[in-house]
UniProtKB/TrEMBL annotation:
Molecular functions (GO terms): flavin adenine dinucleotide binding; flavin-dependent sulfhydryl oxidase activity
InterPro entries (alphabetical): ALR/ERV, ERV/ALR_sulphydryl_oxid_sf, ERV/ALR_sulphydryl_oxidase
Name of this protein: Sulfhydryl oxidase
Taxonomic lineage: Eukaryota, Fungi, Dikarya, Ascomycota, Pezizomycotina
This enzyme's EC code(s): 1.8.3.2
Length: 206
């Protein structure tokens, strides 16, 4: 069995910021690493593996590729195998990307089924859910940044919960914030309902 104990990889150094690892294999990124770095041995190794708060590798914070390097499974694949046929094994614990895709599906679907006009109780329940999600999300670096973004001092990023349209837009903006952080293309938020509620106007989802 692969050894993923904290002794088997390099320990984090002080002041390792996300931008210093732009070439590391697609690891979870975090704009607030500098803040966390002051308090604990919690950061990313040069190999792209993100560490948990106890200093052990955090699988749900790390890309599948970086994880595979860590566990040395990559070496078991014959070099004659074309890269295009090297599929990740099915039904394994999620990496940071699979976890992210599944969670966005849940979150956008929740906004798609949110009441057109939400009453006080519905708003309060959703606020509580988002607050808890931003604490309990299994990729802790993602959770930290999401929480920090929502709590921006001016209040401009607070969840907009009056009804489906504004909540759906807010969720789209929240997702775009992560897209920007990861250097991905922004999604056109005018289209969120076609993507997540009604299906595209060209009928491909009907
Ligand atoms: C709260 C949260 C925080 C995260 N933080 C990090 C992080 O710090 N570091 C990290 O590496 N990963 C993070 N992730 C995961 C990351 O956002 C992606 O899910 C992951 O990189 C896989 O990306 P993807 O390109 O497959 O598509 P995803 O970004 O997962 O998107 C899935 C689908 O949603 C649609 N979509 C894309 N953008 C939008 C939008 N703005 N509005 C509506 N629909 C949209 C597209 O159809 C897309 O195919 C986070 C995920 C969540 C839920």
């Amino acid at each position: 069995m692969a050894d993923t104990s904290s002794e088997s990889y390099s320990q984090p150094q002080k002041n390792l910021f996300a931008h210093q690892f732009q070439n590391a294999t697609a690891a979870a990124s975090s704009s607030s690493e500098s803040k966390r770095d002051e308090s604990a041995t919690t950061t990313k190794t040069p190999s792209g593996v993100v560490l948990d708060k106890d200093g052990k590798p955090c699988r749900t914070c790390t890309s599948a590729a970086a994880w595979k390097n860590l566990t040395k499974q990559a070496k078991a694949i014959p070099s004659s195998t074309p890269a295009s046929t090297r599929q990740p094994p099915k039904e394994c614990p999620p990496d940071v990307e699979e976890l992210g895709r599944s969670t966005w599906t849940l979150l956008h679907s929740m906004s798609a089924t949110y009441p057109e006009k939400a009453n006080t109780e519905q708003q309060s329940e959703m606020r509580g859910f988002l607050k808890l999600l931003s604490k309990l999300y299994p990729c802790w670096v993602c959770a930290d940044d999401f929480r920090t973004w929502m709590a921006e001092p001016s209040g401009k990023n607070e969840p907009k919960l009056g009804g489906r349209k504004e909540f759906g837009n807010w969720m789209c903006e929240a997702h775009n914030e992560v897209n920007r952080k990861l250097g991905k293309k922004e999604f056109d938020c005018r289209l969120w309902e076609e993507r997540w509620r009604t299906g595209w106007k060209d009928g491909r989802c009907d």
